[in-house]
Design a protein that fits this description.
By secondary structure, the protein is an alpha+beta fold. The chain has one domain: FomD-like (FomD barrel-like fold, Beta Barrel). The protein has three helices and 13 strands, in the order E-E-E-E-E-H-E-E-E-E-E-E-E-E-H-H. Strand 3 and strand 4 form a beta hairpin.
Length: 227
């Protein structure tokens, strides 16, 4: 695993990683690390893992590693523009705030579907995070964020999110124009999936609740933060 040589460069994924969707599968209740390569780490609990995909839970107050600016500020402290993708970055140890997220990662697709609830348990929305097709090793699932997202409301209306950030990422050289066009095509695929109410939207995950006996996840041994 090599380190980035410039702020916009991302190293290759681990050589021992394999495509998700094939055995051996992780058992429900097992802790795994969901990694947004190369920096962010989210400890999560497996809900289901099989040929159809991985479903995992990020509990409130879970310790996480997240990417920040080199001076420790949040990335969104920089206005949307190329600088957001070119300024040097660091890694901060933090905790996940909010009511938790259920992530559904269907096998072989370049996105994961996140489910959010309000504090009173009311389902809020699905959030489709466009990202690289998932791979894994024995303990972690790996992907890379593709900036563009799709929000799906309970009434099945959809809205794209962060189109301006994707344009800035192209201007910064983080992605090529062809890559951005492919991400937009993926967003359109998601919108078509919602229109026919396909999986995982029709699977009833909005009624799911975590096992109260599950412990909060922990970061990998030796996890280091520079902030």
């Amino acid at each position: 695993m090599s380190a980035p040589t410039s702020p916009g460069e991302v190293p290759d994924l681990p050589e021992d990683s394999r495509p998700s969707g094939g055995p051996p599968y992780w058992q429900p209740g097992r802790q795994v690390w969901w990694r947004y390569w190369p920096r962010a780490v989210r400890p999560m609990t497996v809900v289901r893992d099989d040929a159809d995909g991985l479903v995992a839970w990020l509990a409130p107050e879970t310790p996480v590693l997240r990417s920040v600016l080199a001076d420790g500020r949040d990335l969104r402290a920089i206005p949307v523009g190329p600088a957001r993708f070119t300024m040097p970055r660091a890694v901060r140890r933090d905790v996940w705030r909010g009511t938790g997220i259920l992530k559904v990662a269907p096998t072989g697709v370049p996105w994961s579907v996140w489910l959010f609830w309000d504090a009173d348990g009311t389902f809020r929305n699905w959030y489709v995070n466009l990202e690289q097709v998932h791979v894994r090793d024995d303990h972690s699932v790996y992907t890379r964020d593709h900036v563009l997202d799709v929000v799906v409301h309970p009434d099945r209306t959809v809205a794209r999110k962060d189109e301006d950030e994707l344009a800035a990422a192209v201007d910064a050289g983080r992605f090529s124009a062809d890559q951005a066009a492919s991400f937009e095509a993926h967003a359109h695929e998601v919108e078509r999936l919602v229109a026919r109410w396909g999986r995982p939207f029709c699977d009833g995950w909005e009624d799911w609740r975590p096992d109260p006996g599950w412990p909060v996840g922990t970061l990998p041994p030796g996890s280091a933060a520079t902030f």
